[in-house]
Amino acid sequence: MHWHAYTYTGGQWPKDSEARNVQAAVPPNTISQWFRKPQSMRANTFTDAGEVVAWLDKEVRAAPPADVEGKLSYLRDCVDRGADAYAGYYSRGQIVVRCALACPRDGERCPDPPR
To answer: Which one of 2, 13, 52, 84 is most buried, counting C-beta atoms within 10 A?
Structure first.
């Protein structure tokens, strides 16, 4: 098992047509579609759960939500369970999405196999 980390920061949520467009560097409508989004949105691939949590901690604290500790606790729990860790929220007038998605997953090709 490993995780693919993705980031997005923008001024507004994308229109539905943008989100469905796999070429557009905006959050998709469904979690599994992240794997099809441009490589530029993928921040890293992790094989170690501790590294995933450290990355999420750093990223979320850099643009914190209202309840940063609650959000981080939720994300840690997701990683500990081997699940997708997804956070989408507003911070300082921006939409912030940080996620680490579990791989492999049914029906999706791994976008960046660990080396």
So the answer is: 52
